[in-house]
Amino acid sequence: MIPIKPVSQPALFDTVLVANRGEIACRVIRALRLLGIRSVAVYSDADAGALHVQEADVAVRIGPASPALSYLSIDAILDACLRTGAQAVHPGYGFLSENQAFAQSLSDSGIAFIGPSVHALNIMGDKIRSKNHVMDHGVPVVPGIAQPGLTDEQLLEAAASVGFPLLIKPSAGGGGKGMHVVERQEDLAGTLPTARRVAASAFGDDTLFLERLILSPRHIEVQVLADNHGNVIHLGERECSLQRRHQKVIEEAPSPLLDEATRSRIGEAACSAARSVDYSGAGTVEFLVSADAPDEFFFMEMNTRLQVEHPVTEMVTGIDLVQWQVRIAAGEKLTMAQDDVVLTGHAVEARVYAEDPEAEFLPSTGTVIELMEPDGDGIRVDSSLRSGLEVSASYDPMLAKVIAWGRDRTEALDRLDRALAGTVVLGVRTNLEYLKLLIEDDDVRAGRLDTTMIERKLPGLAFRRITDEEVSILAAVEAGESAGITDASPWARRDGWRVGTHRPRRLHLAVTPDDVREVFLQPAGAGYEVRIGERPGLFVTQDAEQGTVTVDGIRRRAAIKRNGSALWYADNGWSTCVLSLSRTELLEGQLSQIAQAEGTVDPEVRSTMPGTVTSVSVADGGTVEVGQTLLSVEAMKMEHQLTAPVAGTVSIHLKAGDLVKANQIVARIHATHAVPDAAEHTPTKEET
Q1: Which residue from 2, 64, 408, 586 puts its CA 20 to 30 A from 446's CA?
Q2: Is the dihedral of CA 128, 133, 134, 140 positive or negative?
Q3: What is 86-114 written as a DSSP string?
């Protein structure tokens, strides 16, 4: 790995406030510490115990959990600056990082914004304006229609000239949010209203534009660095083609697609875009490149901030982007020219999210009860995780980034694979196994990438299933912990003790709501003989201090943690949660299945995740059809639509803005065609 080059200690700021949270706030705070600058963290009520709060020199509460009342509140951030004497603000990414009003308010208050000018934010903050602007400066753009203020009717008329398939994009958007692919002309009219609503909700601006969908597209972005003295350089490109729903998952530098000639041309195009707005600081110019024509590239947008994936550039150039952001904002000149930038080796980054890939990537919440983060040669982890952390539904689900550097791409991927295998996060469902499956894919290994690849590959990904052996391990752990002696009397034990022959203990472990396994355990020496169904019993012992379990004499390492009735298990980058059911819970589940099978209760619609109701599409007492959207719930920047499982009359009492919990009943439907009552049922010939 190329070591990050040390910087001199110029006359910088004394105190810098970090207007962000999570892993990027931690990353910036650590850079400030290296520069000898006092750091100020801000936090909402949901983040009072967060890692960035602990790592900063000073921390200021700025409001409740809602981003609008805390991290997006310009007044709250300004007040925190004035109270702590902050001379500058680093915005990180997301939240207010590209907000013109915020940058202007800081300037009006005599506080430096560690980012570009308001002018650059204004031009590049609007996709329509930026596209037209750079086109006038010789930067190639994707064919499309990009004019402010177009109505749905005007967009429909213009679509034929753009061609299909096409993309609907929000002009004020970012991070892929609000983008919609339309394959056919007849689908456009129905998609535009949804796109406007999402754009208005996410960005406060429902302006849309249309863009030709590039087939076999690859997402290539170029890192630029510019000072306030007219110097602009690029630090090479990053490949960000592994995306799901336009959200990046794995990034790398450099791209395996580009040759040196194209790298030089695309880098110069990025610098031209930056120069056109007198850019200052670190920025990223994003391009689309067709895999079928890798020497052609088209400008998409410029991100006027630090990018999530900036570590891969740092690891192949040895340049600390955050420190340079601070130095440039303080008036320093760049000390390197374009010829000084050398890309050495290869770096790959994987984003660790609190989400469940097997449940349509629904956001996950909970408390981190066990944490192990990797280290070793070429490994870097940018993380906000800590044991005891409450993962909230109020914010983006990204928890950490695992980055690996290697002398070549193969070594970097191998190191990343091992690092992910050594990462353990228990208490919250994550995408770790999904990341490993991706980087082990043959096409990924060969560098055959495009932005639609994950969507094509996902149905074929073989997610691991818990084995009977692993269920036996968890059963033994559950039995061992719940049988702990708190009283000298044998009557206080819960291990099946009785006078006479020792009675096997029976547990019911729910692997999924529909997969409950009956397990029998017989104490034997220091462990348990465990039997599931008809298979032979396994002898299981656990050494909690060593973090090992032994099954029939074979010792293995495994991270196991019990949290209430939940038993968490992790092994080689894979984790699962199994619930130990009480007799009452088991009975309730059985009765519920019987009732639903007989049609004696009306269908209930439950929220699949905790979040905020963004829209309600039906009225209480209204008639609905199967599959009709009832309401939408948003959490962690993801919107999920809940639909009617049967036709009938709906009972719903929620409104936009209401908070819901995971598994909460949000609507009930009285089915139009109920299953006949048993008393009215006419027996068939087979039944008689």
Answers
A1: 2
A2: positive
A3: -SEEE--SSTTTT-HHHHHHHHHTT-EES
Total Cβ atoms within 10 A of residue 7:
18
E strands within 574-686? 574-580, 604-606, 611-616, 623-624, 629-635, 638-643, 648-651, 659-660, 665-671
pLDDT of the residue at 7: 60
Residue given tokens 């904002």 in the structure block: 329
Token reading at 404? 């690996």
DSSP 308: T
| Alpha carbon 448 to its chain's center | 24
Q: Which of 468, 476, 474 is nearest to 515 (CA)?
A: 468
| DSSP bridge pairs for 247 | 244
Q: Tell me the C-alpha distance between 365 and 354, whole Å.
A: 7
Task: Look at residue 687 in the predicted model and tell me its pLDDT.
Answer: 38
Retrieve residue 427's tokens: 């208490």
- 93 beta partners: none
CA-CA distance, 271 to 266, in Å (whole number)?
9
The pTM for the full model equals 0.82
E-strand stretches of 411-558: 424-426, 505-512, 515-524, 527-532, 538-543, 548-551, 554-557
CB atoms within 10 A of CB 231: 15
The alpha carbon dihedral of 114, 115, 121, 127 has a sign of: negative
* Strand partners of residue 524: 527
Which residues does residue 539 pair with via DSSP β-bridges, in sequence order?
Answer: 529
Contact of 657 with 612, CB cutoff 8 Å: yes
Q: Which amino acid is at 71?
A: Y
Q: Strand runs (DSSP E) across 435-565, as ranges? A: 505-512, 515-524, 527-532, 538-543, 548-551, 554-557, 559-563
User: What is the distance between the alpha carbons of residues 611 and 632, in angstroms, rounded to a whole number?
Assistant: 10
d(CA 48, CA 59): 9
**Tokens coding 346:** 């290869």
Q: How far apart are CA 132 and CA 147, in angstroms?
A: 9
3-state secondary structure of 51: helix
Nearest-angstrom CA–CA distance, 622 and 645: 15
pLDDT of residue 415: 98
Q: How many Å apart are CA 676 and CA 661, to the nearest integer?
A: 33
Name the residue type at position 137: H
Is 156 within 8 Å of 188 (Cβ atoms)?
Answer: yes
| Lookup: tokens for 362 | 């629904």
What is the residue whose two structure tokens read 């993309």?
A: 167
Give the residue ranges of the chain where pLDDT is below 70.
2, 5-11, 174-176, 482-502, 592-602, 636-638, 673-688
Residue type, 64: P
The span from the CA of 630 to the CA of 388, in Å, is 36
Residues in the chain: 688
How far out from the chain centre does Cα 50 lie? 17
Coil, strand or helix at 428: coil
> Nearest Cα to 12, choosing from 33, 30, 40?
33
Cα 34–Cα 39–Cα 45 angle in degrees, nearest 5: 135
Token reading at 274: 């930056």
Q: How far is CA 656 from CA 613, 633, 639, 659, in A?
A: 5, 9, 13, 9
| Distance (Å, whole) CA 18 – CA 59 | 10
> Max Cα separation, the chain?
94
Q: What is the distance between the alpha carbons of residues 613 and 422, in angstroms, rounded to a whole number? A: 37
* Residue 491 confidence (pLDDT): 45
**Terminal CA-to-CA distance of the chain, rounded, Å?**
77
